[in-house]
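Form 7-S
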Amino acid sequence: MSSSPTRLSDSNGTTQKPTIGVAVVGTGFGQKIHIPGFQEHPRTQVVALYHRELNQAKAIAQSHNIPHTCDRIEDILAEPSVSAVSISTPPFLHYEMAKKVLQAKKHLLLEKPTTLTATQARELYQLASGEGVVAMMDFEFRFIPAWQLFAEYLADGYVGQKRLIKIDWLVSSRADASRPWNWYAQKDKGGGALGAVGSHAFDYISWLFGPVRRLCAQLSTAIPERPDPSEGGRLKRVDADDTCLLLLELQDGTPCQLCISSVTYQGRGHFVEVYGDRGTLILGSDNQKDYVHGFHLKAAPVGKPLTDVEIPHRLAFSQDYTDGRLAPFIRVVDQWVRGIDAHQAVTPSLREGVYSQLLMDLTHQSHDTGSWVKVPSLDAFLASGLYVG
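Output:
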């Protein structure tokens, strides 16, 4: 892999591991989180920036001291100092961009949702495996202290035999009907609440509770039109979902109810409730402004009231930031760097990205057919030529 990274030396002159030159593709979430996250991590250096408008790329790069700018992915990949690429563009651009990155044998960090279809995601997974590069998904919830403690309690069998899992993710981020029309309003561009947050939910359901056997879904759009600023505020049709109701049966038979909405004024926030024959766990946050800050874990054995569980120091972030998304992202970067150093896949990889995308595709299929849909095992889907989406 082509790169000319900077090498770090300790006070005795001993050569340490080299920094990894990263190109950032996407300047929305990329500018808010990816650039500062990479600049904060001691092993990564942002050496290049992509934006479809070169002048815009240059302005952002100058403000962040990034040496190279491009308006073509091919130019970014040809830059010798780039050995890894992060992609945080809108989802309809992920597949083609990520494919070029992997074909160029560059390591990849990809934002969710993975692609537009599970078939595309599977192709990227197979390509990454064949090229021997480390491709990772930015599923941040796996790296938040309260969630990690939640996972430990579940793994230790705190609730016993699970009886019910109930997930609510009710926010008001799209509740204002005057919020502008853009790609997020378009189903064929990967817009909607399912892609934005359902992709996260499907990943952590798999991580915390295991695979899904079957699902049934209803998707709806409460705000059918939004103003397009580029056309003088003319109202344009919204066909992407803003509310998703799902019933899932896990492989072990546990029922799971998932309710997602981005149009709920005073929605309760993000809560995951697990009820078992030995106890109850509730992880949740009502913070509407920051989807990372504010999580608390409550636990109760049978017959006892819920009490707060303190997060142990060993799981706490080493540093907190005003934007809660930054600390878990830096942990994602750290995991990615470890994988690059070891030349081996790390979790969550594109494999987990494929499964999240598969569940999203089957959610649309269930909604379209009005029926329960069986979920194939991930191994079976990866090994088959089955088309979904």
